[in-house]
Write a structure and sequence with these properties.
single chain; D-Maltodextrin-Binding Protein, domain 2; 2 domains; 12-stranded mixed beta sheet; 8 helices
């Protein structure tokens, strides 16, 4: 039997201690291991976890999160009645119809990572067509690249996580991977590889991050209450505060 760890806004609790976690004062969100944005072992659950917990508290809630692989995170956040939603989610028109998206809780800049010894030079997405790129299963990669993938003009290999794709790049199994710049930088700092891998300075896309609340009456109320509190926050200041407290995560 799998044992999941649950994270509260200002602390940790196990499944046993969280059995009473059905109080009306809780927002229960599925999430994933995506450092430095999210991670059960990161301080305050990571940058996105910290921002979401601060906003939730300002809205009168406590935040409860559980980590899964991304596909499971999305499924549970949308369908499991235990959860009120999931995060962080990129904005797209389709996803805005699938759930009640909050206002932005941050931004993610996607880039192309390669080996230093085998760079890929490009100025337009079409320049990437000759290469098979690594992407994470279920992640958005920006409208232009995703359309090229859908039209089969861009060859890709899907991986279960950014960590898997970075390892494939490290070992030369992939020529390039699409990855968030902060996730890539964090991984190199904590797992090594800065001497062999590099992120191209040209961004593939910049996508906003959101909380995806379930399309229920409760989800709509939570989203609206959350957004009202979010409007009173300074996201740049919250991000700076987090990294000042935990500079090693930057």
């Amino acid at each position: 039997m799998k044992r999941f760890v649950f994270s509260l806004a200002l602390g940790m609790c196990t499944t046993v201690h969280c059995q009473a976690a059905t109080d009306a004062g809780l927002i229960r969100l599925a999430t994933l291991e995506w450092p430095p944005y999210n991670g059960q072992l990161l301080p305050h659950g990571g940058l996105s976890g910290y921002i979401t917990s601060v906003v939730a508290k300002a809205a009168g809630y406590r935040l409860l999160t559980t980590s899964f692989e991304w596909g499971t995170t999305v499924r549970k956040g949308k369908q499991d009645p235990f959860f009120d939603g999931y995060f962080p989610e990129y904005y797209s028109k389709e996803r805005a119809l699938a759930c009640y998206l909050s206002q932005s809780i941050g931004n993610s800049v996607l880039g192309l990572a390669t080996l230093r010894t085998a760079p890929i030079y490009w100025t337009a997405i079409t320049d990437l067509a000759p290469y098979r790129l690594g992407v994470v299963d279920g992640y958005l990669n920006g409208e232009v690249l995703d359309q090229a993938i859908q039209d089969r003009r861009q060859a890709v290999e899907t991986g279960a996580s950014d960590a898997v794709n970075i390892q494939k790049l490290r070992t030369g199994k992939l020529r390039g991977i699409v990855v968030d710049k902060n996730v890539f930088r964090y991984t190199l700092q904590h797992a090594g590889g800065s001497g062999t891998m590099v992120l191209n300075t040209r961004p593939i896309a910049q996508l906003s991050l959101h909380v995806c609340f379930r399309r229920t009456a409760t989800g709509l109320l939570m989203r609206n209450t959350f957004d009202t509190a979010l409007q009173q926050q300074n996201l740049v200041q919250l991000e700076n505060t987090y990294f000042k407290m935990f500079p090693a995560l930057r």
